[in-house]
Amino acid sequence: MRFRKSVKIMPGVRVNLSKSGISASIGGRGATVNVGKRGLRSTLSVPGTGLSWSSMSGWAENQRSRPADEIEHLRSAAVKAIEAVSKEAEKANAIGTRIDRAIGTLNGGRGLTQSKAQTFEKRVLTEEHKLSELEEKVCEHGLFLDAIEMRLKAMQFGFFAGGNKRHRDKVAEAVAICAREAKGIENQLAAAHRALSDKLSEVQDKLEDAKNGG
């Protein structure tokens, strides 16, 4: 017989109650830290790829994996994450192309009509939904990269592990650059989303003016 209850106490933080005791989970999709009586477990994953990484540290630290192996695992996970971000950016470019084509049809033929405006509105609402999904995914990947960078910086090495430390620093620097790139793409998606909403409002205003003989 098993018992488990999870209570959300604030955004991104849950307290877990079970027969084995009390633990706390911090984070969400992509990056979670669980604090319990056995220690601290960090779990990272790239949403939609099936790739994940988990490590135990603290008062029940697991020493079975070598630092060099963990660094390489984290580097590989970061590469997967930034590749996923690049794919989302390509999808956003495709959305932009479709919207440009839709805008072009508004001015063709007899100009702006009710039918054209309604068709354009449907297309914009569809593409806005897709953009929202892309923004969410890129944000998740960015948080995942941030979590990898934090884990790398938190790694501790022995007195004679200067090579591992230097390698860790290089990987952490590269991951930080990737995280900034992901944030930049997220901001671009948000800007495109706002521009799309503004364009829809503009078309609706023009149609209303035309109805009123303006």
List the helices and strands and how they pair.
Elements: E1 4-10, E2 13-18, E3 21-28, E4 31-36, E5 39-46, E6 51-57, H1 67-106, H2 114-154, H3 162-211
Helix pairs in contact: 1-2, 1-3, 2-3
Would you give an account of this structure?
With 214 residues, the chain is of the alpha+beta class. It has a domain at 65-211: Glutathione S-transferase Yfyf (Class Pi), Chain A, domain 2, CATH 1.20.1050.20. Helices cover 61% and strands 20% of the residues. It contains three helices and six strands; from the N terminus they run E-E-E-E-E-E-H-H-H. The protein has helices spanning 67-106, 114-154, 162-211; strands at residues 4-10, 13-18, 21-28, 31-36, 39-46, 51-57. The protein has a six-stranded antiparallel sheet. Helix 1 packs antiparallel against helix 2 and helix 1 runs parallel beside helix 3. The chain is elongated. The model is unreliable at 59-64 (pLDDT under 50).
Brief account:
The protein is of the alpha+beta class and 214 residues long.
Largest sheet: 6 strands, antiparallel
Mean pLDDT reading:
78
Taking the alpha carbons of the first and last residues, their distance comes to: 73 Å
* Number of helices, where a helix is a run of at least 4 consecutive DSSP H or I residues: 3
List keywords for this structure.
elongated, alpha+beta, 20% strand, 214 residues, Glutathione S-transferase Yfyf (Class Pi), Chain A, domain 2
